[in-house]
């Protein structure tokens, strides 16, 4: 189950498959593994774009732009911002759901961000190893086909849980405008049983946005850093789907 | 006080209301309740034939603003007629009887109209120190409330106090003032929040109950849907300025004089469920936003504890500091950003150092 590949072990991608060029000289071989299937990658980039739009528009809903001049009938600034927010939110919800469905039909890596194997001692050991690697206490990172255990933990909380929270509270807030007969209220109105005053839901939704900002910062930094420092490709993998091992 | 056999109509006529005015009232009420064209006739019929519903109106920890509002109801009917629609058998604030005479009515109603009377509660009971913070008729109010609730058909929780707790339940709530639905759990309770609720909303609710003999349809939080299903914001006459992005930036600026949206001034219209922007106040004269001040959200749960009335993003106190979501978020993002930058710098230095080491090893 664990994706860790100890250097030199049998599980290591087949080095025998290294290609030779036409002149018979050995080329530098880069073993690759197909990790992220197309739906995973599409969901990743659609979600990334939606989240970006949601953050910018969401911030502007909480702290609107300076007043525009002219007649109210000639302007629709807040209307467009809110429309973009709602549209991006629904796109995110659809692709988040798609991503969950794909976890059932996709490969083993597609399930990784939806759980943390909390009961496995080995998992926490490797989390600790990753923490030590980030604390500059380990010289060599381990190799992983999918997410490393620390990344898996971060993805599960920072992405799956936070985004699920944002979708639920987001639809609950949307239902305020859509009305209490709307399907949004029927499905998500229970949020107001937890926070009867929707001012609280607004505040939590707003804090959730900042939590996601922090997640995105760490996510992008870790991806860039690992791409440079670790022994496998990261960023290009989310485009091509293939993970390349470099040593 | 009225007997159970007297109908509303006979009381109304006795008060000198013409049949013509009576029908006007019925059609106005049907319209304000959003009922169909046939409902006016049904209301008239019900008022002519049904006995008046006995109502016991009690006062716990409150300021009587609900009563003050109620007696100013303009649209369903003038106040005399409204007070005659129900058989208001007990209301210690405005009734003529006093002392033991007044308290005797409670026992009488409980015996005579068991399971048929409406218990209207203004204010709430404080539970701390055995309820000693509100003594009514020589006993803690909570005991009186529980006693009268036992045999009531239903309970109307008037105002933010009875519905949510309001100012006396604001942090730290020293008297442990508790909303009605947390004390009485075995009776249907209709919440009519607001501080106070709109007069026409109050009389509208009473009219519905007396007309149909049941509670109106309630939302998830126990409020009548017909008055509390939409936010102030949804029906606000300044809404076009919100959608256009035209806001009052500070009090008394040009935008304020032009009547732009008060969103940035902390108006709680977007999170407040009430009928102010449609029914308005004092016979439809105005409502807070129309007077140039944002909504303070007085019909919402714990509106005293949600930070300033004048901030869009209200402060959060859970973290032991008084900051709003943006201040907390920016601080967190800034800290993480600094940590990321520092980590990247250390990484770069380490990498350079290890490269040099490798070079040294190889040479």
From TrEMBL, chain A:
Q: Which GO terms describe its biological process?
A: respiratory electron transport chain
- Highest taxon above the source species: Bacteria
Report the family membership: Belongs to the HupC/HyaC/HydC family.
- PANTHER family cross-referenced by the UniProt entry: NI/FE-HYDROGENASE 1 B-TYPE CYTOCHROME SUBUNIT, NI_FE-HYDROGENASE 1 B-TYPE CYTOCHROME SUBUNIT-RELATED
Molecular-function annotations in GO = electron transfer activity; heme binding; iron ion binding
Q: What does this protein do?
A: B-type cytochrome involved in electron transfer from hydrogenase to oxygen.
What protein am I looking at?
Answer: Probable Ni/Fe-hydrogenase B-type cytochrome subunit
From TrEMBL, chain B:
Catalytic activity reported:
H2 + A = AH2
For this UniProt entry, what's an example GO CC term? [Ni-Fe] hydrogenase complex
Q: Which top-level enzyme class is recorded in the Swiss-Prot or TrEMBL entry?
A: oxidoreductase
Q: Name one GO molecular function term.
A: hydrogenase (acceptor) activity
Q: What is its EC number?
A: 1.12.99.6
Residues involved in [4Fe-4S] cluster 2 binding: 233, 236, 261, 267
Where in the numbering of this chain does the NADH:ubiquinone oxidoreductase-like 20kDa subunit domain appear? 63-207
Any single GO BP term: anaerobic respiration
Annotated keywords:
3Fe-4S, 4Fe-4S, Cell membrane, Iron, Iron-sulfur, Membrane, Metal-binding, Oxidoreductase, Signal
Q: Which Pfam families match?
A: NiFe_hyd_SSU_C, Oxidored_q6
List the subcellular locations.
Cell membrane
Q: Which cofactor does it need?
A: [4Fe-4S] cluster; [3Fe-4S] cluster
Q: How does it assemble?
A: Heterodimer of a large and a small subunit.
Would you identify the family this protein belongs to, as annotated? Belongs to the [NiFe]/[NiFeSe] hydrogenase small subunit family.
Q: What is the purpose of this protein? A: This enzyme recycles the H(2) produced by nitrogenase to increase the production of ATP and to protect nitrogenase against inhibition or damage by O(2) under carbon- or phosphate-limited conditions.
UniProt name for this protein: Uptake hydrogenase small subunit
Q: Which organism is it from?
A: Bradyrhizobium frederickii
């Amino acid at each position: 189950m664990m994706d860790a590949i100890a250097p030199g072990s049998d599980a290591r991608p087949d080095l025998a498959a290294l290609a030779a060029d036409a002149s018979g000289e050995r080329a530098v071989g880069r073993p690759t593994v197909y990790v992220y299937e197309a739906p995973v990658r599409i969901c990743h980039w659609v979600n990334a774009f939606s989240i970006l739009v949601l953050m910018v528009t969401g911030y502007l809903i909480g702290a609107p732009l300076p007043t525009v001049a002219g007649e109210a009938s000639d302007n629709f600034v807040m209307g467009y911002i809110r429309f973009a927010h709602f549209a991006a939110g629904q796109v995110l919800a659809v692709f988040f759901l798609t991503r969950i469905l794909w976890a059932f039909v996709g490969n083993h890596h597609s399930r990784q961000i939806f759980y943390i194997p909390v009961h496995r001692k080995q998992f926490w050991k490797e989390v600790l190893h990753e923490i030590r690697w980030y604390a500059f206490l380990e010289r060599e990172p381990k190799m992983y086909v999918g997410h490393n255990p620390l990344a898996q933990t971060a993805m599960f909380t920072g992405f799956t849980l936070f985004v699920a929270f944002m979708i639920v509270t987001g639809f609950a807030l949307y239902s305020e405008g859509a009305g209490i007969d709307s399907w949004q209220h029927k499905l998500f109105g229970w949020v107001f049983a937890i926070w009867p005053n929707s001012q609280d839901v607004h505040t939590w939704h707003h804090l959730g946005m900042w939590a996601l900002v922090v997640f995105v910062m760490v996510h992008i930094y870790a991806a860039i850093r690992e791409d440079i420092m670790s022994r496998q490709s990261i960023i290009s993998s989310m485009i091509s789907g293939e993970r390349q091992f470099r040593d | 006080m009225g007997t159970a056999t007297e109908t509303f109509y006979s009381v109304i006529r006795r008060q000198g209301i013409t049949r013509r005015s009576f029908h006007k009232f019925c059609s106005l009420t049907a319209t304000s309740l959003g009922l169909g064209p046939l409902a006016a006739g049904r209301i008239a019929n019900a008022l002519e034939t049904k006995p008046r519903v006995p109502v016991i109106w009690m006062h716990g920890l409150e300021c009587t603003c609900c009563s003050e509002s109620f007696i100013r109801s303009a649209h369903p009917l003038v106040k005399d007629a409204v007070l005659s629609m129900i058989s208001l058998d007990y209301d210690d604030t405005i009734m003529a009887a006093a002392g033991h005479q007044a308290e005797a009515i409670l026992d009488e109603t409980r015996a005579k109209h068991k399971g048929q009377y409406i218990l209207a509660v203004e204010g709430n009971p404080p539970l701390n120190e055995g309820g000693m913070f509100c003594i009514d008729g020589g006993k803690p109010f909570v005991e009186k409330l529980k006693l009268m609730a036992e045999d009531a058909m239903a309970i109307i929780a008037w105002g933010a106090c009875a519905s949510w707790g309001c100012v006396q339940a604001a942090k730290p709530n020293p008297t442990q003032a508790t909303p009605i639905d947390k004390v009485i759990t075995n009776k249907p309770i209709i919440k009519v929040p607001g501080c106070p609720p709109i007069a026409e909303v109050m009389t509208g609710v009473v009219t519905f109950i007396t007309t149909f003999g049941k509670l109106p349809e309630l939302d998830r939080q126990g409020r009548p849907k017909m008055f509390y299903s939409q936010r102030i914001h949804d029906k606000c006459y300044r809404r076009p300025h919100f959608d256009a992005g035209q806001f009052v930036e500070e009090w008394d600026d040009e935008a304020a004089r032009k009547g732009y949206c008060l969103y940035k001034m902390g108006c709680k219209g977007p999170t407040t469920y009430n009928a102010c922007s449609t029914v308005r106040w004092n016979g439809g004269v105005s409502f807070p936003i129309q007077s140039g001040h944002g909504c303070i959200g007085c019909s919402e749960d714990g509106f005293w504890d949600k930070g300033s009335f004048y901030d869009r993003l209200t402060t959060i106190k859970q973290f032991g500091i008084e900051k709003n979501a943006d201040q907390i978020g920016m601080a967190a993002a800034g800290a993480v950003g600094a940590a990321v930058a520092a980590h990247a710098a250390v990484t770069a230095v380490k990498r350079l150092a290890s490269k040099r080491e490798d070079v040294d090893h190889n040479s």
